[in-house]
Amino acid sequence: MTTEPKIWNTLQRDYRERIEAARPYVMDGKVVEAGDAVKLLEAVIRPGDKVNIEGDNQKQADFLAQCLCEVDTEKVHDLHMVQSVLSIPAHLDVFDKGIAKKVDFSFSGPQAGRLAEYVRDGKIELGAIHTYLELYGRYFVDLTPRVALCVGVSADKDGNIYTGFNTEDTAVIAEAVKFHQGIVIVQVNELVDEVPRVDIPGDWVDFVIQAPRPFYIEPLFTRDPALITDSQILRAMMVIKGIYGEYGIQRLNHGIGFDTAAIELLLPTYGEELGLKGKICSYFVTNPHPTLIPAIESGWVKTMYCFGGEAGMADYVQARPDVFFIGPDGTMRSNRDYAQTAGHYALDMFIGGTLQIDKYGNSSTATASRIAGFGGAPNMGCDAKGRRHSTPGWMKCGEEYGMHDELVGDLPRGKRLVVQLQETFREKMAPGFVDKLDAVALAENAGLDLPPVMIYSDDLTHIVTEEGIAYLHKCSSMADRMAAIRAVAGFTEVGMAEDPDETAALKERGIFKTPADLGIDVRRANRDLLAAKSVKDLVNWSGGLYNPPAKFRNW
């Protein structure tokens, strides 16, 4: 019996066919005119393709995203979008027009409400809500994009790309696509004879387009100190004294939000008062938050590796090369993939906010009305089981772990501190603690096998509310954990089930501590403690190097 010989280069053949179809639109080298961008996309994208539009936390391939919305739906339809962030309207407009059908993503931020509506109405088939590392990993396994629409600062005619301050996801996308015979298209702000630094080599890039306007950058991590509340300052005081100071936390990640901004602005004041400088908060893996400027200027921060940039912070970061990772060209290059890896393995603590915590301690940012996703929080907000190096805070948390002997025996093992900052009632009096997460109903409606939980209870070590701190890792049973959660849940449905005798017993064991137990005078929890009380103060702290976006300027 004879069989046809196996063909092993179908992807290469397909790639060459697509490149040939695009040839009429190529000018000098790899350059395509902006006016031909839609035709280029129609030439290289096929129905049903997996397509990535680079939409990072901040940097957006917004011109190419808009061009994709303008393709002929007879030629391009039913795409499977695989991208880390859904951030701008065009990312969902492609579903309105039938150009795209399915999405796998990590974070949706500004589009969270609209995404929830589309999933509820059946407009979008939802694959999964991933962590960043999880999605990047799948780029190299079963979610490799066939075409990637990326973004950079500048390019030469041969396709060498300079990504600058906001490299973010570009490197991992381009590598996954190009080394599986896919097509990489990059929009840039300008075409130059020679790029300042080659961040993406030209042979990884097929086409470059000078967009008619600079790409959009979302100032996602900027928080105005003027909007920080006394309640957030109280929680920050408890965190600094009852967690950072108690465990000697040197290596950490701060999530997005006013709670962590309050912590950052208390380091040069309250932290200094407690004598903690040099003992906590020396090494950050985070974006260059403007609210960290006073701590950096005061000598608290030794190094900071960044997932991305932050609008207005480029000059300040460039002027602090001892703190930030600066290239030979003099500018920082961020990298979300490397930063997520560092966040997963090299840190002792993750701290951030959430939308809902259930009675068991599971938390999620996916609710009935908002599917925000969770980006990298599950990677940093988990106990990385592969970790094999020790640090004092990690070891101390492991020694206190109430389930250690049952799970590990008598071998020493550390534990990542995972802290959730939570208001008992959030905007519009939405309870921060619930009997069951909205994520459960969301999963049923969207046909997901797993509810989109951000942090599972077994990873969570601390909850901080205005009521106090629950040291959940010290608990030896789920019953204890639930009682500790009730103690900090206030007047929510969960908190109203608190048993005063149980709470008193938890206090005896050091599992629940109020501000008074920590020696904190709540009358001091006000804006007088902040190192900077406005964005203008942050500019002054930076020596004029911080150039905030216009919407944060009110002077």
Q: What's the helical proportion of residues?
A: 25-40%
Percent strand: 5-15%
Cα end-to-end separation? 83 Å
Largest sheet: 8 strands, mixed
Q: What Rg is obtained from the alpha carbons, in whole angstroms? A: 25 Å
Note the overall shape: globular
What class do helices, strands and sheet pairing give?
alpha/beta
The counted number of beta strands is 19
The number of helical segments is 19
Instruction: Write down the oligomeric state.
Output: single chain
Uncertain runs are none
Overall pLDDT confidence: 95
Describe it.
This protein has 555 residues and is α/β, with parallel strands linked by helices. The chain contains 19 helices and 19 strands. Strands 1, 2, 3, 4, 5, 6, 7 and 8 form an 8-stranded mixed sheet that branches. Strands 11-10-9-12-15-17-18-19 form an 8-stranded mixed sheet, with helices on both faces. The longest helix has 18 residues.
Question: Features of this protein?
Answer:
single chain, 555 residues, alpha/beta, eight-stranded mixed beta sheet, 19 helices, 19 strands
